[in-house]
Design a protein that fits this description.
Length: 312
């Protein structure tokens, strides 16, 4: 039985899991990223986190390591072109640097892609050959699994959060207008709620402690503002998903991330929009599923990436 390490490198935390090739989590470790220390400082933190699990499991040889990072990557070369969570990371050949220090096979991918791969291995996508995954968190990410493997281009790709929904919509942080992320991410749901509250729209929401969970609870209590914003999110997701299914001809979509906890508040509008926007796929054939692995999906996906590349 082979042992694998999966890493999720975030702006706040580095999370590492020791997982068998059968999908059993043996050990887990989390530590601060300390992104302010710059590229070399963060790389030191990554190596230290890996060595913590190796030292705690001295009798378990590590066959391979998978690493997930948010941003634009060139996975084939192991290069992080840009990461919004890691200041100063531009065109960093992380693979080359880590291989010199660890001497273990390493593969690097976009974090949302690895969430999709994790769900394919052990989650909602198990035994489904082709599917699209959307993860709704602070932003919106996504991944495509085709014939059981991660589909990527020359770069990490699958920037589904920046599919254009409204050409003249709000200005996204990416510099473009009307992106899916401006409707369906936690950060933008909160931002839109604050704007409506400032404009005097009646609501039971408390502006001082506003978060996506509170908005969902308010929607369940019949709060008009919260219901409106989640319906808007469902509408935008329906358009984005319909476009993806029309292009790819897939019939399965998996939705995860923190905002997916508000499932009941947006899924009705999402399905209604999907029904009217689909063209190349019959609505009756489409499955919209919730993810199963929660915030561990990326770690399992990183391990599965290593497993697939090792051929074990």
């Amino acid at each position: 039985m082979a042992n694998l390490l999966g890493l999720d490198i975030g702006g706040t935390n580095i999370r590492v899991g020791l997982v068998t090739d059968k999908g059993e989590m043996l050990d887990f470790y989390k530590t601060r990223t300390e992104a302010e220390r710059g590229v070399e400082g963060v790389i030191d933190r990554i190596v230290d986190a890996i060595n913590v699990l190796r030292s705690r499991n001295p009798n378990r040889q590590i066959s391979g390591i998978g690493i997930g990072i948010a941003g634009i990557l060139r996975p084939k070369e192991g290069i992080v072109c840009f990461s919004p969570n890691l200041p100063g990371w531009k065109d960093i050949n992380l693979h080359k640097i880590l291989r010199k220090r660890l001497e273990i096979p390493i593969w690097i991918e976009n974090d949302a892609n690895l969430i999709a791969l994790g769900e394919a291995w052990l989650g909602a996508g198990k035994d489904i050959e082709n599917f699209i995954l959307l993860t709704l968190g602070t932003g919106v990410g996504g991944g495509i699994v085709y014939k059981g493997r991660l589909f990527t281009g020359e770069t990490s790709g699958a920037e589904m959060g920046h599919l254009k929904i409204e050409p003249e919509g709000e200005l996204c942080l990416c510099g473009r207008r009307g992106c899916l992320e401006t409707y369906a991410s936690a950060a933008w749901l909160i931002r839109r709620a604050e704007k409506r509250l400032d404009a005097g729209m009646p609501s039971i929401l408390d502006r001082s402690g506003l978060d996506a969970k509170g908005m969902f609870l308010a929607a369940r209590q019949g709060d008009i503002l919260s219901e409106h914003l989640f319906r808007k999110a469902g509408w935008a997701l329906g358009i984005a998903i319909a476009n993806l299914l029309n292009i790819l001809g897939f019939t399965t979509v998996i939705i995860g991330g923190g905002v997916s906890n508000a499932w009941d508040a947006f899924i009705g509008t999402l399905k209604y929009t999907l029904m009217s926007e689909l063209l190349s796929v019959f609505y009756s054939e489409v499955r919209v599923l919730r993810s199963r692995l929660g915030d561990m999906a990326g770690i399992f996906g990183a391990c599965y990436l290593a497993k697939q590349n090792l051929g074990i």
